[in-house]
From TrEMBL:
The lineage of its organism: Eukaryota, Metazoa, Ecdysozoa, Arthropoda, Hexapoda. Its cofactor is FMN. Residues 452-477 are annotated as: Disordered. It comes from Sitophilus oryzae (Rice weevil). It catalyses: 5,6-dihydrouridine(17) in tRNA + NADP(+) = uridine(17) in tRNA + NADPH + H(+); 5,6-dihydrouridine(16) in tRNA + NADP(+) = uridine(16) in tRNA + NADPH + H(+); 5,6-dihydrouridine(17) in tRNA + NAD(+) = uridine(17) in tRNA + NADH + H(+); 5,6-dihydrouridine(16) in tRNA + NAD(+) = uridine(16) in tRNA + NADH + H(+). It comes from the Eukaryota. GO terms for molecular function: flavin adenine dinucleotide binding; tRNA dihydrouridine synthase activity. SUPFAM superfamilies: FMN-linked oxidoreductases. Signal peptide: none annotated. Residues 15-237 form the DUS-like FMN-binding domain. This is tRNA-dihydrouridine(16/17) synthase [NAD(P)(+)].
Length: 477
């Protein structure tokens, strides 16, 4: 508890470690909007240990970026220790990721896919806590039962964990099956251990945070998605989306980061605006953007489109259809992204399967829809996909000239000086000894070259004949 109080400064508003999302500029932006503690993105311990470039980029920080905790993942205790020793001078604690449920963690056998290997985890946490000069913390997901979750938490506490972050979802709760986090599991762990507990999950506004602190007994609340869609979540504000976007882009100018990170943040900030059908081209433009100037221009476009609505100089008429656009707040304000429930997702999947089976029985192989859910042909779908891949190319290109040759029914060459098709142009040039640059027919030029070559050849033969006659005269003499 002393570490949480005195070293970290008793933080309650915490930004979670997020791959490709909790980089330095975003952490600084979050701190400007009230975040009291930030984590680095999850860093792979083996890569961190051996790759200097990866390590240097991962540890990018500044004086304003404090307090900071570095999060590592891996399954080899010694490799984790080597990485932690290299990172310990750049942060206040090392966090071990035992909660990532994604496919990449399953392939690499780390994160939440280590939660059943208790001897390994006990060795790993113990090794780091005994050999580092800074504390070790852990981030975990709950098990199916409270009893096993509590036993798991005590194991980590006894091994040397100083702060435990408990995500109120199981390893299987992810993607469209995410559902709600169960805070009662966090409460059970908080009551059972003697170390500070952070709660993670279900925090989309400041009211959620306050309620979570009260109901779980946790000393701090960590948020990921809530922060990405509204970085001002800890201040209880919903600013217009262009304000945090422009602040973030200014920070990126000072502390550069990959374009993929910038694009990802802007897509989340602008999610509700870009979901409107009339802004489909803007969404495509953001997907193709790859320079800071382009990102800034798109942000300013959105600002110019909605600023008058925000100031009240224009009246906003909220769309009712489709349901996802029927927001409590207007779309230009930062606000959470509300997922469909797992039950709702499963029902939608089942309905699509039934629709596909019905169409299959009617003889239709595949079913295509546009962005608004209207049925379209396969040909139309291919055109939509082609345009989305090349948004910079005009949708309606001017067709080639279909004027006819003056001598026949074939289309004339677009650059032919005689207004003929290629066949008629070739005949004309042959008969009248002409060239056509448009069709690259060079009859006249080639004939002149042939004559020149023939003349040179004849002159050579004459010179040889003259030399032979002269030789014969000398011999006679």
């Amino acid at each position: 508890m002393d570490f949480w109080k005195h070293t970290l400064g008793s933080p309650t508003k915490i930004v979670a470690p997020m791959v490709d999302a909790s980089e330095l500029p975003w952490r600084l932006l979050s701190r400007q909007y009230g975040a009291q503690l930030c984590y680095t993105p999850m860093l792979h311990s083996a890569l961190f240990s051996r790759d200097l470039k990866y390590r240097t980029e991962a540890l990018a920080s500044c004086d304003e970026d404090k307090p900071l905790i570095v999060q590592l993942c891996g399954n080899e205790p010694q490799t984790m220790l080597e990485a932690a020793l290299l990172a310990q001078d750049h942060c206040l604690a090392i966090d071990i990721n035992l909660g990532c449920p994604q496919a990449i963690a399953k392939r690499g056998h780390y994160g939440a896919f280590l939660q059943d290997e208790w001897p390994l985890l006990s060795e790993m946490v113990s090794l780091l806590s005994k050999n580092l000069k800074i504390p070790v913390t852990c981030k975990v997901r709950r098990f199916e039962t409270k009893e096993k979750t509590i036993e798991y938490a005590k194991l980590l506490e006894n091994a040397g964990c100083s702060i435990l972050t408990v995500h109120g979802r199981t390893r299987e709760q992810k993607g469209p099956l995410t559902g709600l986090a169960d805070w009662t599991y966090v409460k059970s762990v908080s009551d059972a251990v003697n170390i500070p507990v952070f709660s993670n999950g279900n925090v989309q506004n400041i009211q959620d945070l306050e309620r979570c602190l009260e109901e779980t007994g946790a000393v701090g609340v960590m948020t990921a998605e809530g922060n990405l869609y509204n970085p001002a979540i800890f201040m209880g504000q919903n600013p217009p989306i262009w304000e945090p976007a422009l602040k973030y882009l200014d920070l990126v100018k000072k502390y550069p980061c990959p374009n993929s990170y910038i694009r990802g943040h802007l897509f989340k900030l602008f999610h509700h605006v870009l979901s409107l059908p009339e802004n489909n081209n803007l969404r495509i433009e953001l997907g193709a953007a790859n320079t800071l100037d382009q990102f800034t221009n798109i942000t300013n476009k959105i600002r110019s489109m909605y600023e008058l609505y925000h100031t009240g100089d224009k009246v906003w008429e909220a769309p009712v259809e489709p349901e996802s656009h029927n927001l409590l707040l207007p779309p230009w304000l930062c606000q959470p992204y509300v997922r469909d429930t797992p039950e709702g997702h499963i029902k939608k999947v089942e309905d699509k399967v039934k629709e596909a089976e019905k169409r299959l029985s009617e003889g239709t192989k595949r079913f295509y829809e546009d962005a608004e859910g209207n049925p379209i042909s396969r040909k139309k779908m291919k055109k939509i996909r082609r345009i989305s891949r090349r948004p910079e190319k005009p949708e309606n290109c001017s067709p080639k000239s279909m004027e006819k040759c003056s001598l026949c029914e074939n289309p004339l060459g677009s650059k032919c000086g005689y207004q003929l098709c290629k066949k008629c142009c070739r005949d004309k040039c042959f008969i009248e000894n002409l060239d056509c640059e448009g069709h690259r027919i060079l009859v006249k030029t080639r004939r002149e070259m042939a004559k020149k070559h023939a003349n040179q050849k004849n002159k050579g033969k004459s010179a040889i004949a003259s030399n032979s006659e002269l030789t014969e005269v000398k011999c006679d003499s």
